[in-house]
Each structure stands twice: as C-alpha cells, then as structure tokens.
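Researcher: Structure for this, please.
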Amino acid sequence: MFNQLLNLTYLSRCFPPKAALAFIIFVLLIFTGAGCGKRKAPQPPLEKTQQRIEISGFQQGNKVNLTWLLPAQSVSDSSVSSIKQVDVYRLAEPLDAPASLTEEDFASRSTLIGSVSISAEDLARRQISYTDSLEFAGQAVKLRYAIRFVNSAGQKAGFSNFLLIEPTAKVAASPALDVPAVSQEAILLRWQPPTSNVDGSKPVNVLGYNVYRSEKETPQRKMLNSAPVTRNEFSDRLFEFERGYRYFVRAVSLGTNGQPIESADSNAVEIVPKDTFAPSAPGALTIAATLDTISIFFATNLEKDIAGYRIFRSTNPELPKSEWQNLTPNLLTANTFQDTKIESGKTYFYYVTAVDRFGNASEPSEVVSETVP
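Model: Predicted structure, token format:
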C-alpha cells in the first residue's frame, strides 16, 4: 500500500496539484473501503402481520358463526404475538354475482362489521370466533366474509380466504324445553315446537330436532341423537344418577341449498337426577334343609345398580315383616345364603329384599319356609 502511494505521489508530479489530489483521494477511498460499496437489489419490507388465514362458518338461526385458528407461535416468532386485533368484513351480493372476486374489489365494496381483540389467552387457545346477526330484508342474497389481522402498529395483513354463505330466512325459531322427567331407565325430555320461522313467516320449516347435553365436569356439548328427532320428546338412557347434566334442543330446518340448518339454542335446563326408585323384589326363591343348615336360593335382580341383598327370618309368620330378624347386617352380594343358627324340629320362615347402591330397598319377596329335621 505504501509503495502504491509513493507511485501515486510520483505520478502526481505529472498532473496539476488539484487534479493530483483528487486522484489520490479517489484511490484511497477504493483501497480503504470508505466508499458506499456495492449496492444490493431492493428488498421488500418484512411482513409485520400474518398474511393468510382460513376461516369457516355456518348459519344457525338468524346468525352466522365464524371461526378461525390463529397461526401457531414459535419461540422466535414475534409476528404472531404482535397480532392485537382481527377485523371482520362482509359483502352482500346478488345470488347471480360472480363467484370469484379480487381482494381489491372486496376491500372497496365490503363493510367492516366488527373487530375482535386478541388477548394472551386467545393466542394460547388459538381458536377465535365471531357471530354476525342477520337482518332479513326479503331479498335473497349471498354473503361473502373475510378477516384480516391488525398488529400493534396498526398495520393490516392481507385478507383471509373468502367464505360464501347463502343464508336462509325461513329457519325455524327455537323450541321451548320443558322440565325433564326422571325414571329408573331414562331422563325424558319434552319440548314445545317453534310457532314461526326467525323471519316471522309460517308454516314453520322443521325437519326434526337435535338434542344436546353437557356435564358440569366437562362443559363440552354433545349431540345425543344420530339423526334428527321427529317427535317432540327424547329419552336419554345414557346417564348416571347423582351426576349433573345440562340439556338444550335445536330445531333443524331445510336450508337454501338443501343442507340442514339448526335453529338457535332452546332454553337450557339443568338437572341432577336422583335415584329414588326401589329395585324389584327378588324372585324364584327356593329353600332346602339339612340337619344343621337351611340353604336359600333366589334369582339375581336385573337392575344394574344392585348393591346386594338382605335376608330376613322369623319363626312366627304372623309377625309384622318389619320386626323379622335381619340375618345380613352387611349386604349379601351373592344370590345364595346358608343359615346355620337353627334348631332341630323348628320351622323357619324367610324373605329377601334387594338394595341398590343409593340405599333404595325393594319390597319383600315371597315368603319361603322349611322345618329342620
């Protein structure tokens, strides 16, 4: 480098002072890298918000329920945590409007119908929803929905996919659920059918009903029927006593394109079914005696909640049954019993009761007797 400068100094003697100085400075800039360096190709700005997201939705009664998933967030991904809001847009179009639409056209013609603020809990849960209430004007339309993310700096991402829905005005209103009736085998639900559609029109557009149940321990709702119930009642046989349940019903209507559409939820009823139902009395009793034992046999009860049986004995059949001796303070779990505390020559009388796990006792069985040899 020093030799090059000497050569440059030598050469500068051959040029006017100003020209030589400019030439030396130019060369120094090249060798020291103090110049601007090589220019890179222009790069697009980094995206501050998530570009695309998929939304889904369906009509229920006079509402459209929209749902979408927030993108999964990695440890190094700050673009997701910067999402502070989701804007929801809607465009009403004639039924014969073209199916395709550019984002530019949608942006210029759609209406911002609502915004959803995103919390830390939403980011963890990821699934977000929005409900759009419909007002039917008597003219059939199709609705096009889309959403876009907005970050903390107010920057907006591109639109999501377009969701097209042709809402049906003649969707049945909600049914009215009555107080359930509890029996040993089932919880019987009955309801009053809707009297009109959500737009006030008649006759009511009802194909059937869907019955839903949730539990206090697990709030997730479950549809109990596999196909729409065509009657105004339903028996829930898959239940447990002493467990809390919450029921509601939805009417099912025929939609615009032939698809079923549910009504809004009926009123909800909660119930903790109590088992106050006594089992049936044991039957088919037989008895046999030996010198030191009387054996009693009987058929097992068919109820699923039987906890055991009690054996009662007396030497006086006229004695009130409530005064007979209980030979099984601890419930008998088998359907046989051997009485060894007997005396030769005496006649003994017996009856059996069944007890369920809630303490309900059956009526006495038939009385059987035997005389010890």
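Researcher: Any notable elements?
Model: The chain is about 10% helix and 35% strand. Residues 40 and 364 are 98 Å apart (CA to CA).
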